[in-house]
Specification:
The complex is a heterodimer of chains A (929) and B (122).
Chain A (H helix, E strand, L loop, with lengths): L3 H27 L8 H8 L5 H14 L5 H13 L2 H12 L4 H8 L4 H34 L19 H17 L10 H29 L3 H10 L1 H4 L12 H17 L1 H9 L6 H17 L2 H11 L10 H8 L3 H41 L12 H25 L6 H12 L2 H10 L5 H26 L6 H5 L20 H23 L4 H11 L20 H12 L1 H14 L12 H27 L7 H76 L5 H33 L6 E5 H19 L2 E5 L6 E5 H18 L6 E9 L2 E7 L34 H11 L3 E6 L5 E8 L21
Parallel strand pairs in A: 2-4
Antiparallel strand pairs in A: 1-3, 4-5, 5-7, 6-7
Helix pairs in contact in A: 1-9, 1-17, 2-9, 2-14, 3-15, 3-17, 4-12, 4-14, 6-7, 6-20, 7-8, 7-17, 7-18, 7-19, 7-21, 8-17, 8-18, 9-15, 9-16, 9-17, 10-15, 12-13, 12-19, 12-23, 13-17, 15-16, 16-17, 17-18, 17-27, 21-23, 25-26, 25-27, 28-29, 29-32, 30-31, 31-32
Chain B lengths: L3 E5 L3 H13 L3 E5 L2 H11 L3 E5 L7 H10 L7 E6 L4 H9 L4 E4 L4 H11 L3
The chains are: A mainly alpha (929), B alpha/beta (122).
Chain lengths: 929, 122
């Protein structure tokens, strides 16, 4: 007799056994001798994929569709081929980045996005809730069926029973308690649960053994082998159709493909599969064995599905027993108490395993990707200041576990009755399949952006909700059935199950096609239209290049900030507790070959390592918030990078400027040196000049003094001689005066303080005047003066007095150097282009080529070798040249055609019409220079 | 015996005054207007004393003085250097080259005559 208390006791004992296994595994793990660190345990833990849906539902599906239950297992079996490439990459990335869940993974991939992680979490909870409700339904149903043993009864609809008398409610609550005990006893930085994995592996074994046992019993106990069952089934026409796929009521090709693809994805993206396959993975090489062990397990657990289904159909009258319960009903009908109990335990195992792992995975996601990012942002809670947050984390997770199971229960109560087990499971599959594009795309497509993932996920999820969730709600009676048959507001095109007129497909395939189209389409389009931020790019390359990056010290290339070691330690101990924190920092120090933790340098690498440690506990997004709270971190965005570039280019520009400045400085120094040299030269020249002037002044003074004394001491000199001496004194006095005047004149011109009265001058008239002035010298010396001047006036711009001074100087010089009596001086004036040119030729000895520039220097007089020293100050030509240069002309000397010297000057021509006004000299056209 | 004085200067008026002074004091005077001419006269005229201007064309006074003092035959010839550049360096340069006296222009006729007499041992 199977009394209720016996069943409860057995169930409790079994759960206790699971717990013991888990406890033992945890102890072993703490002792460093893990029992789960082998590929067989890993492969068995992956079999958490086979839930009570497999255990009870496959037979139900087979009874209705024949081989139609198979795609759910064919998918993973085919997909396994890709695991070594895809799953191993996910595992590698997750290990390096301390990924704690699929939400964390997706969020981290797209720039540690909290919103994306939260979105994945929300979708997972909503999507998985029906799946959990399925387990509750299976467990509760099996319990209720067992209670009426050996009478087979169809349980009443759940909704009609008060909650407190509903077995499913108690199943839900006890599973919640069990999960809390399993999964949230303590916090682990890597979010790994060795005990749980061991227990799951154990339950996988139990459910397999139970299913094989009942299968063997039906095949060989009730019937006599496979051949017997199939033969008998083939005799019933309705059942014969089940042998052939794609026929009759069975699934179509499209459904086969749809379901195969769906389950291929689900086996990797279901939160619990991600948990056991990725998060709980000890060694990625375990995948190698799991790749063939897992399909073998799938094959084994499906081996007896058809025999049991045929057996049930043959054994029970149509409709007497729900095909979903054949597995339990057949041993019951045969009064096999122990086998029935084993089947019940197997089914419970499948349900409990799924619920435990799924809720642990979901609670981690809720905690790390939904609640923590939110509460950490609420400054009023002052969480950032709390010393130890590990208690809070556990509380959040425990609360999440209870809530998730309650949600599952509520769904079961209000919607679960409308569907068979398999259909409920598939709805969840379709929901989590929405993660696939963002997840797999993110592994290989570098340019995928957070925006793209957001849009893809959101749209895919909305389409999923519309095409699968809405019909479920309608069928539960919460909304009018007309929405399904006529479409919302009567728009047939929007009928949730035949969206845009797509018919001929089963509901799941239909939803899969539309949601994936929306999801992938949006993901691709938006990604291509948007630009990834810097942190997204950094994360993208960490993910896409996971196999190229070696070691776990992924550099954080774009990080700027400052933090103290004490702050980082405080942060880690707040979340992991002081003991774990100490260990963590000791490890970090050892990894960096440092003797003491205090030697750790707070650099980008260390901060990144701490963030990764935290990420293992509270998820990447939350860890980022926490680390930025202590690290005075500057968020490095595109703008910042542009800023940095700006700064850099400014620095470059600045350094260019500096270089330019220093070049200028060098040039300036060189100029200064040159100027200094020049000044020294000028100083020397000034000294020379002073010395020259002194000499030139002393010479006439010498004569004056000497003759004055002679005259004074010799009053008896004859008058002629006396007259001669006085003449000399007068001449030398004149010479002295002239010299002083010229020195002053030259000094004025050179210093630029001379006054200039520049106007339009008739050069012809000017030369005539000069000739008149010097006429007496010519007469005295008997030198002939010839003027070759044009008939008409020739206008030049000049200072008339100064130019006259030059002309007189040239004429005087010419007389001086011309031989007495035979001398001949010619003055020639003519236009030459835009200039007037004057040549003054003499027939003297000429100027040697070597002296031609010398004579324009001060106190350098030519003709020293001639007959005696010419009387002159040695300043006439230098002054004349200064004047000509100032007036914009030139003055030079060359050989005259008939020997002798030719002094020439040119001046720019002026407009002759201005000469009319020149009748009144000195009153206009004058300017100061 | 009448002492011979050579006047070497390129300033005609100064030469005139010196010539007057020397002749008035009873010396036989010759005039040279350049350095080369001065040396030539020293060789032919063999003066007892040379009034030597520093600033002369074709060999300046220093060179002439040096040539005179180098030649042993001319060792007894006294040299009085005349210069319009009255700087100390020039005085010491002339003395170093063996000049017997140095007079800067403009000079006092009395002093010059006294100096000439002294040097000629009168």
């Amino acid at each position: 007799m199977l009394q209720g208390w016996v069943i409860v006791l057995v169930a409790a004992a079994y759960l206790g056994l699971l717990f013991a296994v888990a406890y033992y595994a945890d102890k072993r793990a703490d002792a460093g001798r893990s029992i789960i660190a082998n590929p067989y345990i890993y492969a068995l833990s992956l079999a958490v994929y086979a839930t009570s849906w497999t255990f009870y539902g496959s037979v139900g599906r087979a009874a209705a569709d024949g081989v139609g239950f198979l795609p759910i297992y064919i998918g993973p079996t085919l997909g396994v081929v890709l695991w070594w490439l895809v799953l191993r990459k996910i595992i590698r990335i997750s290990k390096v980045n301390r990924i704690t869940s699929i939400a964390d993974f997706v969020g981290a991939r797209y720039g540690k996005s909290q919103i994306l992680g939260g979105l994945v979490t929300v979708i997972a909870i909503i999507g998985i809730t029906p799946y959990i409700s399925l387990q509750l339904k299976a467990a509760a149903t099996s319990f209720n069926i067992l209670l009426s043993y050996p009478v087979l009864s169809v349980p009443p609809p759940a909704a009609s029973i008060p909650i407190l008398r509903d077995t499913a409610f108690y199943v839900a609550m006890s599973l919640a308690a069990f999960t809390i005990l399993f999964g949230t006893r303590h916090l682990d930085a890597a979010e790994r649960h060795e005990g749980m994995v061991a227990a799951i592996a154990f339950e996988s074994l139990v459910k397999l053994v139970a299913f094989l046992a009942v299968g063997a019993f039906v095949t060989w106990g009730i019937y006599s082998g496979f051949g017997d069952i199939t033969r008998k089934a083939a005799e019933v026409p309705k059942m014969a159709a089940l042998f052939t796929p794609f026929s009759g009521a069975g699934p179509t090709y499209a459904s086969w493909i749809g379901l195969t693809v769906l389950s291929m994805l689900a086996v990797m993206v279901l939160p619990r599969q991600f948990q056991v396959a990725v998060v709980e993975n000890v060694n990625e090489n375990h995948l190698k064995k799991a790749i063939w062990l897992f399909p073998v397990y799938m094959l084994a657990i499906n081996l007896f599905v058809l025999p049991i289904a045929f057996g049930g159909l043959l054994h029970f009258a149509s409709g007497q027993v729900d095909a979903d319960t054949f597995v339990l009903a057949l041993p019951m009908a045969e009064k096999q108490e122990l086998l029935t109990l084993l089947v019940f335990i197997g089914g419970l195992s499948a349900a409990a395993g799924m619920v435990v792992v799924e809720t642990i995975a979901l609670s981690t996601m809720v905690c790390n990707d939904l609640v923590m990012p939110l509460v950490l942002r609420i400054k009023a809670l002052r969480l950032a200041e709390r010393q130890d947050l590990s208690g809070l984390l556990l509380t959040i997770r425990r609360g999440a576990i209870v809530l998730i199971l309650l949600l599952g229960y509520l769904y079961f109560r209000f919607a679960g009755e409308a569907y068979a087990l398999v259909s409920i499971g598939l709805i969840s599959f379709a929901a989590v399949a929405q993660f696939a594009p963002a997840l797999f795309g993110g592994l290989y497509w570098r340019d995928a952006t957070r925006q793209g993932a957001m849009w893809g996920l959101s749209l895919g999820f909305i389409v999923w909700a519309y095409t699968l969730m809405l019909p479920a709600i309608v069928r539960s009676g919460w909304l009018p059935a007309s929405i399904l048959s006529d479409g919302p507001l009567g728009i047939a095109l929007l009928r949730p199950s035949q969206l845009f007129g797509l018919t001929g497909l089963d509901q799941i395939t239909h939803a899969l096609i539309w949601s994936m189209m929306a999801n992938i389409g949006a993901y691709l389009l938006v990604s291509m239209m948007t630009r990834p931020s810097v942190i997204e790019q950094a994360q993208a390359s960490r993910f896409v290049d996971a196999f190229k990056l070696t070691g776990v010290h992924g550099a954080a290339p774009l990080w700027r900030g400052s933090a103290s070691l004490a702050e980082l330690k405080g942060l880690v101990s707040r979340f992991l507790g002081p003991v774990r924190a100490k260990e963590v920092f000791a490890t970090l120090a050892t990894e960096r070959d440092l003797h003491s933790v205090n030697d750790l340098e707070v650099d980008a690498d260390l901060v990144h390592a701490v963030e990764r440690q935290l990420a293992g506990t509270i998820g990447a997004a939350s860890a980022r918030i926490m680390v930025s709270s202590v690290v005075k971190e500057e968020v490095v965005g595109i703008d910042d990078v542009m800023g940095m570039l700006d700064e850099a280019s400014q620095a470059i520009a600045y350094s260019h400027e500096l270089e330019e400045k220093s070049r200028e400085l060098v040039a300036a120094t060189r100029e200064l040196q040159a100027a200094n040299e020049r000044l020294k030269e000028l100083d020397r020249m000034k000294d020379d000049f002073v010395s020259m002037v002194s000499h030139e002044l002393r010479t006439p003074l010498t004569s004056i003094r000497a003759f004055s004394e002679i005259l004074q001491e010799n009053p008896d000199l004859d008058p002629a001689e006396r007259q001669r001496f006085l003449g000399i004194i007068i001449k030398e006095s004149e010479r002295l005066t002239r010299l002083i005047n010229q020195v002053l004149d030259l000094a004025k011109i050179e210093s630029g303080r001379a006054e200039w009265h520049v106007g339009v001058v008739d050069l012809v008239q000017l030369l005539r005047n000069a000739a008149d002035t010097t006429a007496s010298i010519f007469q005295e010396t008997g030198v002939e003066l010839v003027l070759e001047l044009p008939e008409h006036p020739l206008a030049v711009t000049a200072d008339e007095d100064r130019l006259t001074q030059v002309a007189i100087n040239l004429l005087s010089n010419a007389v001086k150097f011309s031989p007495t009596h035979t001398g001949r001086v010619t003055v020639n004036l003519r236009e030459e282009g835009r200039a007037a040119r004057v040549d003054v030729c003499d027939n003297g000895p000429g100027v040697k080529a070597a002296d031609r520039e010398l004579i324009f220097e001060k106190f350098r007089q030519a003709g020293d070798n001639m007959t005696g020293k010419p009387h002159g100050t040695g300043l006439g030509l230098p002054i004349s040249r200064q004047i000509m240069t100032h007036l914009g002309g030139h003055l030079w000397v060359s050989d005259a055609a008939k020997g002798g010297a030719m002094f020439s000057f040119t001046l720019p021509l002026a407009d002759a019409s201005n000469l009319a006004a020149k009748e009144w000299p000195h009153d206009q056209e004058s300017a100061h220079c | 015996m009448t002492k011979k004085v050579l006047i070497a200067d390129d300033e005609p008026n100064i030469v005139t005054s010196l010539q007057f002074l020397m002749e008035r004091n009873g010396y036989e005077v010759r005039v040279a207007r350049s350095g080369d001419e001065a040396l030539e006269q020293v060789g032919t005229f063999l003066p007892d004393l040379v009034l030597l201007d520093v600033m002369m064309p074709a060999k300046n006074g220093y060179e002439v003085c040096q040539k005179i003092k180098e030649n042993e035959a001319w060792a007894k010839i006294k040299v009085i250097m005349l210069t319009a550049k009255g700087r100390d360096t020039e005085v010491s340069k002339g003395i170093a080259l063996g000049a017997d006296a140095y007079t800067s222009k403009p000079f006092s006729t009395k002093e010059l005559v006294t100096k000439v007499r002294e040097l000629l041992g009168e």
